[in-house]
Design goal:
Elements lengths: L3 E6 L4 H12 L6 E7 L5 H12 L6 E2 L5 H12 L4 E4 L5 E2 L3 H12 L4 E10 L8 H5 L26 E4 H6 L10 H12 L3 E13 L14 H17 L3 H19 L2 H4 L3 H15 L9 H12 L2 H11 L15 H12 L3 E8 L8 H13 L4 E6 L13 E3 L3 H9 E6 L14 E4 L17 H7 L2 H8 L4 E3 L3 H10 L5 E3 L8 H4 L2 H11 L6 E5 L16 H8 L3 E5 L11 E3 L2 E3 L6 H7 L2 E4 L4 H5 L6 E4 L3 H8 L13 E2 L2 H9 L6 H14 L7 H10 L28
Parallel strand pairs: 1-2, 1-4, 2-3, 6-8, 9-10, 9-12, 10-11, 12-13, 13-14, 14-15, 16-17, 16-20, 17-19, 20-21, 21-22
Antiparallel strand pairs: 4-7, 5-8, 6-7, 18-19
Amino acid sequence: MPRFSIIVPSHGVAGRLSQALDSVLAQSFGDFELIPVCDAPDASAADVVAGYAERDSRVAPVHSPPAAGLAGARTTGIRAANGTHLLFLDGDDVLVPGALAALDARLTETGEVDILHFEHERTPWWEGEPTNPAALLLPKSPPGAFSPDQVPQLTGVQLPAWSAAYRRAFLTEHRLAFPDGHFTDIGFCGLAAMRAERVAVLHSVVVRHLVRRQGSRLGLPGAHHLELLDQTQLLLTRAAELGLSAERSIALFEQLFAAVLKTAAHPARLGDTGRAFFRRASLLYRGHRPAGHRAPGGSLGVQHRLLANGSYTAFRALRVANRSATRAAERLPRPRGLRTRLLYARDLRRPLDENLAVYCAYWGRGYACSPAAIHAMARQLAPHIRSVFLVEPDAVDSVPDGIEYAVIGSRRYWSVLARAKYLVNNANFAEGVVKRPGSVHVQTQHGTPLKRMGVDQSTYPVVAAATGSFAKLLGRVDRWDYNISSNSHSTQMWERAFPGAYEQVEYGYPRNDVFYTATADDVARIRRELGVPEGKTAVLYAPTHRDHHSGFETGLDLEAFCDAAGEDVVVLLRAHYFYDRGRASGSGRIIDVTAHRSSEDVCLAADALVTDYSSIMFDYANLDRPIVVYADDWEVYQETRGVYFDLLKAPPGPVTRTPEELARVFRDGSWAGPESTAARAEFRDRFCQFDDGYAAERVVRRVFLAQPPEEIPSVIPLARRVPAPAATLVRK
């Protein structure tokens, strides 16, 4: 029987779950079992947990359906636990180093107790100093174990469930479980405190709680706040049944109604239920007020008296009178030009056009990427939707015939942005774009993240300086309603990099649909357009951007590579889109395709890919064609840019570190050999999960047509997908 069972619900925290699990497994005290509770075997968090379970026998995952909520997940963990004492850890929190050793030492010192309370830190998700609220909530207590009657203020309702260790036999004996619904911590901790006979306190931080950018779910508006009154009624009723002492009853009453009054004082949080909440709270107050209770002084005492009298109107008036907060200054700049600003403001007051969709790709560089793929599919499946693509003035000529567009910065640009029901982008719209109620913003992304993204860039000075204001970045994230993902890795990293309230949709990247729909004739046509000689092996060389470089550097002598790799090799050079240098051009065996509108076309034309750390490798892997990694400065890139995983340990093909090594793998054929094929198969299994040729259709049916899940195409298993044929390789 292990000393501790650590129960970790994982719903909605897959992006940071590994940090929580790592913090437990790294503890110096190893006598524990770790019980992650996942939604289902195929959930995103389950993929994370499975790897840990394979590596460490102490990890014993269980499953609890999402409908059971946090309470059900924790109760499922309790049933599966075998440890002497139970700890609860949220999936995005961590145990501090030495936490379990400190708990073990304290339990040895005090002897077995029903509950061991301890301190925790609340760490702001982004900036600011951590706080230790439990240090104030845990009152002075005897040095060893003590009876709860000795410290009546320790009711449990002010502390979260992950701020204590519970004796498992104690929970089992009293059949203690987490009450269903919201505010479950209040109900569980309060019930446990009432039943406990011996408790103790450890005045040390054990858990570091990450405060989400979105805030607590309990802070969101809605009728669920009425459930706070359910927990309040449950605890007050049980306290009366158990005959708690007057001191403990008064402390419990005051702490519960401090939470109730705090909620009642936020009318926006309660919405239409405000009056009903107050009326029911008033009945509870009068019905359960313990003998000897005296209302506090000051404004809080006035609130107590108004609640006791059921004076809702007076309570609201007092709340308004006490509020000193002012409206925050508008942080987003307006369109340039007074007339344009006035017209945009006017259009924002007009009704949304329910049949208008606006698209943009790469900050207006042209008709490209997933927005273009969604646009094309919407014209087929939702022809009633009028679609407008946004482009910079110098990209107008690249817009295909028949595509309606608006030039960025023009009056028409601001007009369609103000009126559009649907807005689709693979980057972000301008700062001045207002997110209107009822509008739907779709973020398609434009790659699978190997390098650090979003707020994860903050600790890398070179990147952070180029990114600019992270507050403005998150303001743009707050406009998203949907964020598209092509694999579970991306889903988890977007959650970390761009914290927000959007919905993750694992549909695959629409721009990658063509890798499964293109024909041999399409491939031949594209190669002719790019100038690839007949019968040659086209190697796409696509290096990524280096934040520590001031301009584009190939990092490789391409002419020398061609000479060394063989006479039948030509190179398609595609620099990062930051270095768009005009039209595609050919120079001997080096064909510059940086300016070609479609990276998908370039991939279809190539028989193999050579890249360093560019996300193009994840897209190209859908074609199941050879990929070679040229990692000449991996250590520098890791240090300056930051990465989410070690590419060199899980590459899509051969890894080369020098020009000589790169030429050799092409010369000896290992670039397309069995080891390359095996590595690519593992890579595809991990990163080509949802790309199957139907991503754009899924988005259109879900977003534009609002079809139910059963009418949206399911993802085709990887083994059944047939990628577009390569030009010069015969596939077995």
